Amino acid sequence: MSIKSEYRPNVAMIIVSENYPDKKEIFIAQRNDLQDIWQFPQGGIDKGEEVQEALFREMEEEIGTKEAVIVGEYPEWISYDFPSKIAERMKPYTGQRQRYFLMKLSKDAKINLATEHPEFMAHKFVSVTDVLNHTAHFKKPVYETVLNYFKNEGLL
Predict the structure, then answer these.
(1) Exposed/middle/buried for residue 117 (C-beta within 10 Å: 0-12, 13-18, 19+)
(2) Which of 3, 11, 42, 133 could crosslink 55 through cysteines, CB 3.0-4.6 Å?
(3) Cα angle value 2/94/34 (rounded, 5°)
(4) 62 touches 29 (CB < 8 A)
(5) DSSP class of residue 131?
(6) Which fold has domain 7-152?
(7) Structure pTM?
(8) What is the pLDDT of residues 23-76, one digit of tens each?
């Protein structure tokens, strides 16, 4: 008997500062519910919602702004499994199936983590070469794949 894995549809964003492309610094945020876990903003796609609609909604819900433009998009869905601790609270999902976007913050964007339902306690911009040193171990393979894609496209 096989168990069917369920993956939550999700958007994720690699956000670069307004100084892009002159300075390639990537936004990461520290989760407020997990010990010292930093990640890219991401969130679920609601039933009937378009991917880019979810992208800007989630950006505003997670970091308090949607003042950004899309620079690039990873060309396919990419998935990862939740670690067992996280999977327990995310049932019925065993992981996430994501669409990744490279986003550039607008000059007038104001990051505000004190949103209606805050997920993050801090944020910072780090170099492309340093970003994987700060992120959750279970997300690193996906992050590395997506970052390498954008590097190969000449975007990072």
Answers:
(1) exposed
(2) 11
(3) 150
(4) yes
(5) G
(6) Nucleoside Triphosphate Pyrophosphohydrolase (3.90.79)
(7) 0.93
(8) 999 999 999 987 788 999 999 999 999 999 999 999 999 999 999 999 999 999
What gap in Å lies between CA 100 and CA 81, rounded to an integer?
16
Six-digit token string for 124: 């910072």
- Residue 44 corresponds to which tokens in the numbers above? 């679920």
Residue type, 151: K
- Cα(33)–Cα(13) distance, integer angstroms: 20
List the structure tokens of 19.
Answer: 């100084």
Burial 119-156 (b: 16+ CB within 10 A, else e): bbeebebbeeeebeeebbeebeebbeebbebbeeeebb
CA distance linking residue 24 with residue 10, whole number of Å: 25
